[in-house]
Amino acid sequence: MKYVERELERKFLSMNGVFKAVMVVGARQVGKSTMLRRLAEREGRQCVTMDDLQTRELAKSDPKLFFQTFKPPLLIDEAQKAPEIFETIKILCDNTDKRGLFWLTGSQSRKLMRKAGDSLAGRICVLKMYSFSVRELLGVAPGSDLDFSFEALKKRSMLFPKNDIVATFEHIWRGGLPDVQELDEEQLREYFNSYVETYLMRDAVDDNGIGDTEGFRKFLRACAAFNGQLLNYNDLAVSAGVSGVTAKDWVRVLQSMGILELLEPYSSNELKRLIKTPKLYFCDTGLCAYLSSWTGRDVLMNGAASGHYYENFVVGELIRHYAYGKENVNLNFYRDKGQREIDLVIEKDNVLHPLEIKKSASPDKRILKVFDVLKGTEKQVGKGGVICMAESPFPADENNCYIPSNII
After folding, report:
1. pTM passes above 0.70
2. Which of 141, 216, 299, 310 is most deeply buried (CB count within 10 A of its CB)?
């Protein structure tokens, strides 16, 4: 598979001009090393990997000699395998005003984040990478912030092919990991089986000290069964045969590994009776589909859980957009104790943009009525709409549009 340009490249290079060290974290095999090695090649930057036993032993036993041998500017791959280097990186950063001295990659873990934060506070920028977005796979770079007005959506839609339910669920079922894009069904199944056993279970044991590996496997599958739903620790605990306390800790572990993303509920002093429970999503829908034993695109697309997977896909695309972009937003959902719910509330510049998500080409516009609950806040309610399978954007009313999910 040829190299696919990543949306994170722009932000990474921008932060490289400001910070002395920049680290890219994320789940295993999302393409961190590939992106940074390609960028390093462009400027002739030296690269080392802590996967190499001799290099790792030198870094761990004598960090000063390591950096005499491998001088910055330097790319250090799999930095979490030699945490001893961070104190020396701190000293080297403090002895110069140069920016972009160190590029680091690391599989996301609580241990790595804590070590980097303690040693390099104020010196390092940590950026998160996810698996491929649809935009990246299509090679489409809209080049502008996401505007929910009809005029902006119409202009944006010109860059994309028409929305298509089969193509959408092909991406949902396959996921966005680079290595799976050209695999057939049998190969894909074996890839994810190896991914879980080789990476996830090993990281759970080695980096997070989890001894109950069978319980952790069951817990992974239980999380997949609850994707796109309110997080219920008791239900997850029962499914895996563990305590509620263990379930909470394992959710945090899976977050730190870049497997799960929790979407927090919207909160407001003006609105009462709001729930405080987050919703659970997988960072990669392909892994989620594998864990739930969906054997193909069509059975998933026509299955009872298709709506949850479609919602997970849309939320994931928006998370990627805002993680890589310039906009500063809060991404939440709304739900109160009266069961009124808005799938997404994007807050930008003190303006709320409400969004519903429906796996339909022509959703009923009456669902927009729920947006009225936000009028009870002091914040302005801006443009929003329904993200759905419509082929092109079109107005639903004066403030909201039907928004094709493939253009977000």
Report:
1. yes
2. 310
